[in-house]
Design goal:
Length: 96
C-alpha cells in the first residue's frame, strides 16, 4: 500500500503519544510536594501533606504530631511546617 505524503505512520503516532504521556507525568510530579504540615484539627493535632484535604494522621498532642511529620519529611526530603492553634505558622524545619 503506497504511503501518501499527508499520512502519518502508526509508529509516528505512537511515538507522539508516548512523548505526551511522559511529559505530562513529569509535570504532575513537579507540582506536588511532600511537605508535612502540623495543624490544629478539631480538639487535637493532625499531620497533613501539603495540597491534601485529607489528614495523614491525628494526634492528641502537638509534639507527637511533630515527630510523625518529621519522620515523613526525612523519608521524602521535604519540610515540616508547624502551625499554632490559630493556624499561623510557628516554625519550619527543612530536610532537603
Amino acid at each position: 500500500m503506497p504511503k501518501s505524503s499527508n499520512s502519518t505512520s502508526w509508529i509516528d503516532i505512537l511515538k507522539e503519544l508516548v512523548e505526551v504521556y511522559f511529559k505530562s507525568s513529569r509535570q504532575s510530579k513537579r507540582g506536588r510536594t511532600w511537605h508535612q504540615h502540623v495543624v490544629p484539627y478539631e480538639d487535637d493535632w493532625a499531620v497533613r501533606r501539603e495540597g491534601n484535604k485529607r489528614i495523614t494522621s491525628k494526634h492528641r498532642r502537638q509534639d507527637t504530631a511533630i515527630r510523625k511529620a518529621k519522620r515523613l519529611a526525612r523519608k521524602y526530603k521535604a519540610d515540616v511546617i508547624i502551625h499554632r492553634e490559630d493556624g499561623t505558622i510557628r516554625d519550619r524545619i527543612s530536610y532537603d
